[in-house]
């Protein structure tokens, strides 16, 4: 280490030589060469390095801006999708409620129509029963009348002899004759 410091100290003591030559002391010339190379690199490479860093900075900022725009777009799409979802849910609820209301209305209409049909069938049944009762009553009356008539004819035929028959006819002719005189 002492040699390194001695070489820096000896820099101030260079004899002014009139000739140009090579310094073969590696420890003395290496830091000088490195400092010259670094100085040249910094002086000339500073602009290139700044350009590279500026380009990188611009790409990073551009990427951040694009990401922000995409995020805002995604948030807007999400809000639109949520609004659309709310709208669709409200429509679905409305359709569901309307469907239930429509089902209830159809149920009531069907019950009313069935009740009306049953009432009409009951009326037809009652009319048919009444008609059949009247027909049965009429048939019974005819049979009773026929039996009574046959019974009366049988009684008359058994009771009437020719003399009684002749007297009944004469009496009827007499009644008809007196009615005829009254009307003249």
TrEMBL record:
The chain crosses the membrane at residues 32-49. It is found in: Membrane; Plastid, Chloroplast thylakoid membrane. The keyword Transmembrane helix applies. Its main location: membrane. GO terms for molecular function: proton-transporting ATP synthase activity, rotational mechanism. Residues 64-98 form a coiled coil. InterPro entries: ATP_synth_b/b'su_bac/chlpt. Keywords: ATP synthesis, CF(0), Chloroplast, Coiled coil, Hydrogen ion transport, Ion transport, Membrane, Plastid, Thylakoid, Transmembrane, Transmembrane helix, Transport. It is a single-pass membrane protein. The keyword Transport applies. It holds the Pfam family ATP-synt_B. One of its GO terms (cellular component) is chloroplast thylakoid membrane. Belongs to the ATPase B chain family. Component of the F(0) channel, it forms part of the peripheral stalk, linking F(1) to F(0). In plastids the F-type ATPase is also known as CF(1)CF(0). This is ATP synthase subunit b, chloroplastic. It comes from Tulbaghia violacea. The gene is atpF.
């Amino acid at each position: 280490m002492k040699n390194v410091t001695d070489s820096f100290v000896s820099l101030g003591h260079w004899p002014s030589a009139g000739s140009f030559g090579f310094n073969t002391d590696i420890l003395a010339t290496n830091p000088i060469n490195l400092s010259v190379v670094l100085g040249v690199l910094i002086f000339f490479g500073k602009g290139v390095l700044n350009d590279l860093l500026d380009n990188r900075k611009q790409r990073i900022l551009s990427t951040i801006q694009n990401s922000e725009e995409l995020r805002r777009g995604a948030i807007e799409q999400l809000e639109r999708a949520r609004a659309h979802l709310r709208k669709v849910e409200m429509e679905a609820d409305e359709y569901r409620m309307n469907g239930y209301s429509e089902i209830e209305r159809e149920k009531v209409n069907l019950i009313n129509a069935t009740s009306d049909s049953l009432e009409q069938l009951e009326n037809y049944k009652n009319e048919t029963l009444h008609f059949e009762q009247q027909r049965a009553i009429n048939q019974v009356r005819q049979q009773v009348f026929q039996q009574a008539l046959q019974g009366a004819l049988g009684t008359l035929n058994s009771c009437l002899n020719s003399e009684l028959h002749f007297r009944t006819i004469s009496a009827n002719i007499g009644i008809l004759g007196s009615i005829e005189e009254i009307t003249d």
